[in-house]
Structure formats: C-alpha cells, structure tokens
Structure to design on (774 residues):
C-alpha cells in the first residue's frame, strides 16, 4: 500500500422519498439557492415539484438555471456563474445526474472567483472556495454526488476537461432510489458501464499490486453493479436493485477504491472524453466501445491482475494466464452486448477516417493528465480495435 | 436496502512515517492539547518521542494524561476531564489503540460538559459538543479512529457501556502502519478477532437481507483480515500486511458495512463486554470465546446468510444448508485456534459457576441496547457452550 489522505465529508441521505427532505438539509446553508437542472424531464416526472415544495416549506428561495446538457458545456456554466453572482445566491442546489452535478460544481466554484472559471479546468487556478452544494441525484452513474470532481466540455476548444478540489464535495447529497425507477434502460446500461469503468481503470492501472482490500472492494462493486443491472433489466422499478445500483455507483468513484493504490490513471475515460467531446455520444456508450480494446492493451502490463479479475468477477477458469486474461475481457464485452451498450464505433456512426482526429484530441488530455504511455499512435491503435 | 444517513468526516492520513505529521494536522485546532496515552510502551518504542517532537515543531503544547488501561475505566476518564478543564486545552490528542482513543473521546465530550460524563453513557445526556480530537493509532482493531463511538467501564457499577455522537468523530487520524510492526502476535490476533466481530455482527443480525453490496464489503473485509493476519504471523513486520490490516480494521466499524442494512445488533460484543467488565480478559480474546457459540445460536434465524458466509469467505461446500452453516462456523473457530485466540472460557480461567453472574451483567447491556431476544437464559445458554 502507498501513502494517502482520505477525507470525504459529504453527508449522504439515502432512501425512498428522501427527496422530500432537501429543504431541511439545504436550509442551514442559507435562504437562496441556484437551482440547477437539465431538460424538462424533472418537470414531467414530478421531481421538480417535490424539490421546490420541499425548499419552499423550509423557507429556501431559489432562482432557476435549467437546461444543462448531458456532457455539460462551458457556455452554459458561464451563464450559471453570471446568474449566481447577479442573484447573490447562498448555495447551489443541483437536481439531476452527473452532468447536472458537474456543471453545478463548476458554477459553485466560479461564483466565488473573479477570473474565468475555465482557469480551474486548465490548472491555471485552484478552487480555493466554492458555494455550498446540495444535490438531489436522479441518475446513479458518475459518483459526482460524493466526490470532489467534475467534467465540462469547452465547445470552443473541443476540450472535455475536469475540475477537482476538496471544496467541491457536496455538503449533502440526497440519494432517493425511487427517482431512478423511470431511468430508461439504455441510460441505465450506460450508467453501469460508467461506474464499472471508474472502478476498473484504477484497478488495472495502479502502481502498487499489493492492495488486496482495494481489489476486493472493486471486485465486489463490479459484481454487484452487474447483478443489479441485470435485475433492473428484468424489472425497471426493482426497489432493491435500483437502491443497490445507486449506492454502488456512489462508492465506485468517491476515493475509497483508489486510496492506497499509488499512481493510477483513467485512460479509458481519457479516450472516451474525446469521443463525446467531438460527437454527441453518451458517455457510458463511449466507454463500453473503448473499454475492451483498452483492456486488451493494458493487460500486457498487468496480466496477473486481469487474470484475477476474470476469476473473481466472472468465475472464469482457463488453462493459462493469457487465456484467463482474454476470457475476463470477453466476458465483460459480452455483458455490455447483453445490456445493449455499444461495443463498436460503427454503432454510434463514427467512421474509421475519424480515428486520427479523435486520437489527436485525446492527446490533449493525455498531456494534461501526464499519461506518457498514451501517445497518439497508441490511442489510434486502441481506437482501430473499436471499429 | 433501508434508509440511512452516512456522514464520516474524519480525515485519514495514512502511510509509513506519517506520525511525523501529527503536529501539522493538530496545529489548526489550537495551541494546547491533552496528550492521552496508555502505559509506558509508547515511551519505550519511540512513538512518544516522535509525536512530541512533531507537536513541538508545529508550536503545539501539551499536558499529559497517560496511564489509560485496556478496557478504559471511568475513574481515569474523570481525571482526564478534570485536567482538560483545569488546563483549558484546545484539543485532545490520543496516541494508542482503541482503549486510548475511546477514553480520549469521553474526555473530549466531558471537557465541555458541566455534568457527570457518565451521563452520556447512560443516555441521560447527549454529546452536543466536544473538543476536537486528533488520533495517532498504534493498534489496528477497534475502528475508533474513524467512527463516532467509544466504550468505557464504570468500575463502581461494573458496567461496560458505550458513548456515541457525530461530535466524536476524530478530526484527523494518523494511520502509520509502521507503529504496529511491534504489536505482539497475541494482540494482533485479538485485533483481527475484534474487527471480524464488528463486521459479522451486523452481517448476521441485519433486518434486511437484500443488501448484496454490504454483504460483499463485509465478506471482502473478513477475507482480507484473515489473509493479512496470517501474513503477519509469518512475518510480524510485513509492511503490506500491517498496512492492509490497519485499513481493513478501520473500515470494519466506520458505518459503511452497516449503512442500509436496517436494524442490527452487537450481541457478541454485548456478552463479551460483560466478560471483560468482570474479568481482566482482553476484548478480542473474549470475543473469540463467545463468537462461535453466538453464531450457532444466531444461525437458526438466518441460516441462508450463514451458508453464504461459509461459501464466500471460506470456500466451503456441503450437501445441504445446515452443513454449510456448521462448516462456516467451524472454519472460523479453527482459524481462531490457529492464531491462538482462545475459544473456551476455561482458557481465561473463567469457571462454569461464574456464568450466571456474567449473563446477569450482560442483561444490563441487553436492556440498554433493547435486545429483547437476548434475555438472561439465552445468554447463559450461549455461555454454557463456551465452557
């Protein structure tokens, strides 16, 4: 194990109908919030009414900043920052999935900063302070509800970059699994892929291999996500499966699975970020396209870990380590196919001629993240295997 | 899954030689601490020198409150509270294992309370505030370094009772595994038993059985604790095994394994508390004596969970569920014997004639915790199986 600091102060309020408590938990942070949300869905499914009723009942006013896109964009963040400053809100209240939460984090940081909020994403400035953030999660996937990071796309520069600071942990996150019962199965699948990718990227890239506890956390989470997703596909409003999926996705990216594993990287996310920065591909869909090919590439450096994954997560057995490695990757890819998450670029209308441009875009992130083992030709090779 | 609130704000600073950073992390909380520790061991093994040097280097002064016993006693807590008040310390700095940390929590609460600190243990008062607590862990076992509880024995009334409040989470806990390299093997074994007991009591008593994620967390933790303890027995200063054991014991009782499982209980701890309140038995030793018999009793209510435990943790197979249940309990008991943790009252010189008195004592705790399914005759029956 390697040295680390672990500190995750977010308060999680979990359970059916907990959305009604958002006012109670928001009130200690002030009288006026910026209510950040996405498209019309929360108005259609009643979540908006539940949230605003709860806020009003607790004496919390709000100004609205709806219209967050999936893969949130910088121009919309700018508008939110301006509104938050102009209206002098005390807090940001985010109601949605990872995109909404990520944009809300950027706004919370930008509202207390005199410069350009994109500075934080380019490492030109640190987030020294941010407005308190309260979240109501409607899609279990990104873990943003219990971590200190977020991702935004700058449409001008076509950069999908991330922000991170201990000041961006939500103060309180309401995890009400009933709000996810109506999430369509395609997005349920993409969410599962995203959470699994968060877990496996650290697991397969960590510098330290003597981390049996972290390994078992990851393996148990991946098994549980697969099992719960299968249950949800059989019954979309399965209370225990939706609840378990929500809690598992939270723990898939809140610092626990990577604490003590030393240096690690997110190369699958890196390549996917370019895909969804350049094309309108759902994040999880992009991840399931890239992941099997990336795993094959990464398995050459850590074959033993891939063999362990195959045995423990999928119960594979094989004559030798290499066969185990391949069996594990194949099992995961087959599961992606089963849940109808795409596994080829052609399924999202990306043609082979586009691959060099995607790879070139991804190298910007490789540079930002210091991933020297992923120069453009390596990324191109991986993408060629995803055609 | 059941509704819950999860909020664990303790900052963990983990790694070899992190003890040298205690001053840096204590300084933001004030200029003067009450330094709580146990017997002479930290002076003999150099930990005292490392801690006090680090505090002095960061401008933190301290007054000393040494001499904490294992199974800490109320009279010593009173002395600590008096000293903390008299010296007007800004924080409590605990250096030791679970006993030292638990006593430090009681002192931190008592120092800001005008009444009798025992009120908190008898549920006559709530801990509304407490001095900030900084801990340096020297024995991985109780999880006190990342939770909000503690246990103290009132020698007058022979009650070993617990305290709990969100205000008792340590602000910062330094987890330096090198400080545990010299822990003797008997106490290493008792620590493993304690951590396993924390995990299995929730696992086997939870009201909700549809908690696959929590189950896998527990199973992975128990497997890892067993594996690491075996490695430590082969090489007491095994860096990875000591580090893994330290981190696993922390997660065995910090709220994660029980979040969402609904009502649960600690009946094995309940019975053991009476054993160590009445006799000078190490806590972990008492637990390994009671646990197999308690498990047999508890397995009648949840046989499927015991069968799952046997299969997943020990890889048992058997012709039917009952045989699996018994195989799992037997495997754990055999492992206790292997690591030389006692499995019979006779091994700690408790004679059968004492059993009624132990059971009578335990019923006080059964009442406090509301465990109606454990009247004195049931506890006696369990203890009779531990002779």
């Amino acid at each position: 194990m390697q040295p680390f600091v672990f500190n995750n102060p977010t308060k999680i309020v979990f359970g059916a109908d907990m959305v009604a408590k958002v006012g109670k938990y928001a009130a200690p942070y002030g009288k006026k919030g910026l209510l950040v949300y996405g498209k019309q869905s929360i108005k259609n499914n009643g979540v908006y009414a539940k949230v605003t009723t709860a806020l009003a009942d607790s004496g919390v006013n709000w100004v609205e900043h709806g219209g967050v896109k999936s893969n949130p964009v910088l121009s919309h963040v700018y508008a939110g920052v301006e509104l938050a400053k102009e209206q002098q809100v005390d807090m940001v209240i985010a109601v949605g999935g990872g995109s909404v939460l990520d944009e809300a984090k950027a706004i919370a940081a930008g509202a207390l900063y005199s410069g350009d909020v994109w500075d934080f994403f380019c490492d030109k400035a640190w987030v020294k302070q941010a407005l308190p953030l309260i979240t109501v999660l409607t899609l279990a996937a990104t873990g943003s509800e219990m971590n200190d990071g977020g991702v935004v796309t700058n449409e001008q520069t076509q950069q999908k970059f991330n922000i991170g600071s201990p000041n961006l942990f939500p103060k309180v996150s309401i995890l009400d699994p009933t709000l996810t019962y109506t999430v369509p199965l395609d997005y349920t699948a993409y969410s599962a892929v995203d959470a699994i990718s968060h877990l496996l990227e650290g697991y397969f890239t960590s510098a330290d291999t003597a981390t049996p506890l972290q390994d078992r956390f990851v393996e148990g989470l991946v098994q549980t996500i697969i099992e719960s997703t299968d249950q949800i596909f059989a019954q979309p409003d399965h209370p225990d499966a939706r609840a378990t999926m929500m809690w598992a996705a939270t723990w898939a990216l809140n610092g626990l699975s990577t604490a003590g594993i030393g240096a690690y990287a997110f190369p699958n996310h890196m390549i996917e970020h370019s895909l969804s920065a350049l094309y309108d591909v759902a994040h999880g869909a992009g991840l399931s396209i890239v992941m099997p090919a990336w795993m094959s590439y990464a398995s050459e450096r850590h074959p033993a870990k891939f063999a362990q994954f195959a045995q423990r997560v999928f119960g594979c057995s094989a004559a030798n380590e290499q066969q185990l490695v391949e069996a594990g990757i194949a099992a995961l890819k087959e599961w992606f196919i089963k849940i109808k998450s795409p596994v080829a670029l052609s399924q999202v209308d990306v043609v082979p001629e586009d691959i060099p441009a995607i790879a070139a875009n991804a190298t910007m992130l490789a540079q930002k993240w210091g991933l020297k083992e992923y120069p453009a030709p390596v990324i191109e090779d991986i993408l060629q295997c995803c055609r």
